Amino acid sequence: MLNYYDILEVHQEVSTEELKRSFRILIKKYHPDIHRHNKQWAERKTKTIIHAYKTLSDSITRERYDRLFNSHVQNNETQRTVKKDITTDEGESVKTHVRSVFIDLLDGQIHNAIEKYEHLLKNHSSNDFLIHLNHRDYFDCKFLLAEAYEKLGQCEIANEFYEFILEKNRQDTYRRHLLSEIKERIRNNYCRNLARRSTPEKALAYYGKALKLRLDRNDNAFIFKKMAECYLKLEEYETAVKHLNIALSLKPNLQGISKLKTKLNHLIPNFSI
């Protein structure tokens, strides 16, 4: 896991102003125009600096980065001792491998992490073996596993993790900003990544799950419109009209419904919305 503080040449308690000052100095120092003989290196360097600055200059992303990075540092020694079946004590062996999964996730080694996680899952399917982590690392590991599966295109598995975190932490005000992000990811996975490449029947199931997220009126209006489109494809015209009416009741100026209304006009006598 990259140390963004080292990259920006600051200490971990750095103020926002000090962070900005160091960032400006480093961007000038490593600007590709100055390093014309090694331009690709300079471009990679400045890209890393910019990403580090964006992460640390925002209080929310900095808080999450600090938590993950500190956990990574604390458990770095564990990674060095991980060997296959290094102990005859099953509990300690599982704990060690769970730590290895978590550290790989922190390091961005998602393929290694998923391979190890699924190996553990195969051999310990009846247990939530991540409980070997402390409370905060437990949920961070779940979140990072969700991200990893999402990046690998396995959005249904990702949403299982996201929904677990959301349900278990609804009353946690400390994580409220993270829960809002998780809810958005679940919605996007159901409504975009999954529903768009599914049959109308399957898409309706995904949209139904998205409605359970307690989203705002605009999001719900969009979902009901998409459900109306699915029912139209299934030739369930009356149900399509019903869902379109719900969508418009939530957002009267809803965009992108003209084609849908035109099709329904041709299919249903005396149709009006």
Account of the protein in words:
- This protein is mainly alpha-helical.
- The protein contains 14 helices and no strands.
- It has helices at residues 4-7, 16-29, 39-57, 59-74, 76-81, 90-106, 110-123, 135-151, 155-168, 176-194, 200-211, 217-233, 237-250, 258-267.
- The longest helix is centred in the N-terminal third of the chain and has 19 residues, at 39-57.
Number of strands: 0
Radius of gyration: 24 Å
How many helical stretches? 14
End-to-end separation: 55 Å
The mean pLDDT is 86
* Oligomer status: single chain
Q: H/E element string? A: HHHHHHHHHHHHHH
Structural class: mainly alpha
User: What shape does the CA trace take?
Assistant: globular
Topology record:
Blueprint: H1 4-7, H2 16-29, H3 39-57, H4 59-74, H5 76-81, H6 90-106, H7 110-123, H8 135-151, H9 155-168, H10 176-194, H11 200-211, H12 217-233, H13 237-250, H14 258-267
Helix pairs in contact: 2-3, 3-4, 6-7, 6-8, 8-9, 9-10, 10-11, 11-12, 12-13
What is the gist of this entry?
With about 270 residues, the protein is mainly α. It contains 14 helices and no strands.
Write out key terms for the chains shown:
single chain; 273 residues; mainly alpha; Helix Hairpins
